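Figure 6 in text form: structure in, sequence out.
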């Protein structure tokens, strides 16, 4: 799924203007280290993050700009996992992802800077074979 951010404004002479940024995909390569006790694991993780962002700028109903960039950055976070059985574990994980900031549009004194940083929380169910 994609995640997006939108900005709308009314500009004299042009009518409405909109800028949209979407995160088309996200991947991470992480290491994790933690402490296991009884059937629980508490851990921290961190590593490399990458993704693709796409921006669209529309003014007066006309698309002025539409481009995408591959972005790289980093991620860090923590989680907890609990072994329900020897084969099944459940848990939750928090991550902070930062893909950096970049000027994605600059024309006739109008520019758009995109800063891609966000938080995620996910639920985990792991089955070991």
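Output sequence:
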């Amino acid at each position: 799924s994609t995640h997006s951010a939108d900005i709308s404004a009314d500009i004299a002479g042009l009518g409405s203007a909109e800028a949209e940024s979407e995160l088309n995909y996200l991947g991470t390569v992480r290491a994790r280290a933690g402490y296991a006790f009884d059937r629980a694991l508490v851990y921290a993780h961190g590593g490399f993050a990458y993704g693709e962002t796409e921006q669209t700028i529309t003014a007066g109903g006309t698309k002025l700009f539409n481009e995408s960039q591959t972005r790289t950055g980093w991620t860090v976070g923590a989680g907890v996992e609990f072994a329900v059985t020897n084969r099944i574990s459940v848990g939750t994980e928090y991550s902070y992802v930062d893909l950096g900031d970049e000027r994605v549009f600059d024309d006739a004194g109008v520019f758009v800077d995109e800063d891609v940083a966000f938080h995620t929380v996910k639920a985990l169910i792991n089955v070991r074979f």
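Caption detail: The domain at 3-127 is CATH 2.40.160 (Porin).
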